[in-house]
Amino acid sequence: MSTARIQEANGHAAEETNFLGSFLKKVTISTSNGKLTLPQIIIIGVISVFILLTPQMLSNYRLNLVISILTTAYFAQCWNLMSGYTGQFSFGHAAFYGIGAYTSSILFVDFGINPWIGLICGMMVSGIVAALIGYLSFHYNLKGDYFALATMAFCEIFRVIFKNTKALHAASGVSIPFSKKFALMQFGSKAGFLYVAFIMLTMITFGLYKIRRTKMGLYFVAVRENEDAARALGINAFKYKMIALIASAMLSAVGGTFYAQYYLYIDPTICFGNTVSISAITPCIIGGVGTVFGPIIGAAIIKPISEITNSALSNFVGMNMVVYGLILVIVIMVMPKGVIGLVQELRVKMGKKKKTEG
Amino acid sequence: MATLLKAVNITKRFAGLTAVDSVNLEIKEGEIVGLIGPNGAGKTTFFNSITGFYPATFGSVEFDGHNITKKTTFQNCKAGMARTFQIVQPFGQLTSLENVMVGAFNRVESYAEAEKVAREMIKFVGLEEKMNAIVADLTIGDQRKLEMARALATKPKLLLLDEVMAGLTPTEIEECVELVLKIRKSGVTILMIEHIMAALMKLSDRVIVLDHGKLIAEGKPQEITQNERVIESYLGRAYKKEA
Fold it and tell me: What's the fold here for domain B1-80+181-243?
């Protein structure tokens, strides 16, 4: 077989008849295993200090936006672990988020159990649900579109169950009594929540950065890049997909509990709605799927945009979604590999220019 | 020499089609065995059945003294069976080094150690200059070499090569032949599917021929080229005149 034909066959194999799978392949960029350079560390440091100082500088309304950027980025990082690193496109991450929020809230409101314990319980329940979904999907080898649809379906099932079960407060949702006690996982002021959100985001980002240089991290990426090859090289793909899914679900549950404690109200749509799942995906796609900092950059871009369209177009119902969607389409067309992908491309081009000039 | 692989009565059916039909094969330690046959003869399917990619419908496989018939691919790799693919299957977005490291992690736990093994293996196949290149950007020849390095990094006892020379230039083929000999010297037994007869004649101790899923001949390379049935179904009359 000639080289050209083999390459053709390769390209064909990669395309498949799998929309989301091939979409994910297109938007994912190589997860760099490089160490951070000094300028990068300085930039991160400056941004971190700025975020930690925002309570002194910004109004409560603006502070809200910063917190929502941080929490969105956190949730996006959870998605990034399983879909960006490990390549299993989840369209139903709200399921894990919602379970986290509901577990801690119901345990607190109905049973008087401390939210901190509720948080752990939420993680456990979410992990168990993820294990169940993962086993059913991966055992029967659901991939790409089919896996994405399965996660979406499970999420929708949860929404319907929570909406129609009286014991789970049905459609009226759960209101959490306001207190200001740290012991009840309410951090006094908005500033308190901001610091906690910042710590959560820092921890998960640091984890994603570190794991890339371990056996497990490389195995995740190998499964994403080529599952057959990974199997042939001694990787138990099922096991690593399960680990990524369960870890991602447990971390998502933490995000859910945080949301509930911050806004003090949850209902089935807020927790299990499609928009919630999508809110984890868009920051990754805009920033760079599979990268360490992409989801944070994406969240920092998308949240203000949606905020602006919301307030500017509040007179036209649904118009904000149209504009938001348009912006998203344009972004994906202009830079399919996200901000980080675009920067990498520009760097390569600049490097080439320098070479030809010099 | 001890038997490393013993495949008995391997049969693989896809719905109505019998792709591999009761094939028996024994490979001794240190051998290079060539597997030839026309397109669609079931060579790759036979590979896939042995390695556990899709288990055989009937038959049993014994590897290194253990029955591995029901084992999965990754378990077989742990047991010491590595393979390459007919169509290269790289981890395209990763560097050469990382590609090979994935293989190395089959035997080692620490990142630093895996990196060391991977560097050795990349040097072994002669790709040290492309250590940090993204694999999707490499030529097919280099990707094939890399795939061999990756398979070798798992420290196999048996290496199954599926048409590693397809699509290579004559120079690359020569390099590849040298490489295969070097691999054998390092103590790895090899079973290879190959269409490049010249290379196969040079390399293999023994050749087996599949046609329509059946084993039609087995023997030394020279014997095979004289075998009437093999000429009829695979090599063609022209080959006989040349030989």
Answer: Rossmann fold (3.40.50)
- What dotted CATH number matches A37-357? 1.10.3470
CB-CB under 8 Å, A6 with B94: no
The ipTM (two decimal places) reads: 0.90
Q: Which chain A residue has its CA at the smallest distance from B47's CA?
A: A232
Give the residue extent of every domain in chain B.
1-80+181-243, 83-155
SS3 sequence, chain A? Answer: CCHHHHHHHHHHHHHCCCHHHHHHHHHECCCCCCCCCHHHHHHHHHHHHHHHHHHHHCCHHHHHHHHHHHHHHHHHHHHHHHHHHCCCCCCCCHHHHHHHHHHHHHHHHHHCCCHHHHHHHHHHHHHHHHHHHHHHHHHCCCCHHHHHHHHHHHHHHHHHHHHHCHHHCHHHCEECCCCCCHHHCCCCCHHHHHHHHHHHHHHHHHHHHHHCCCHHHHHHHHHHHCHHHHHHCCCCHHHHHHHHHHHHHHHHHHHHHHHHHHHCEECHHHHHCHHHHHHHHHHHHHHCECCCCHHHHHHHHHHHHHHHHHHHCCCCCCHHHHHHHHHHHHHHHHCCCHHHHHHHHHHHHHHHHHHHHC
* Averages of pLDDT over each 10 residues, chain A, 358 residues: 39 53 74 74 90 85 91 97 93 96 95 94 97 94 90 95 92 87 80 93 94 94 94 95 97 96 94 92 91 93 86 78 82 86 85 59
Contacts of B144 in chain A (CB under 8 A): none
CB contact under 8 A, A225 and B51: no
Please tell me if residue B82 touches chain A, with a CB cutoff of 8 Å. Answer: yes
Q: Where are the domains of chain A?
A: 37-357
> What is this structure's pTM?
0.89
B90/A226 touch (CB, cutoff 8 Å), yes or no = yes
Q: Quick check: B151 and A235 CB within 8 A?
A: no
Give the model confidence (pLDDT) of B132-187 as tens digits: 898 988 998 899 999 999 999 999 999 999 999 988 889 989 999 999 999 999 99
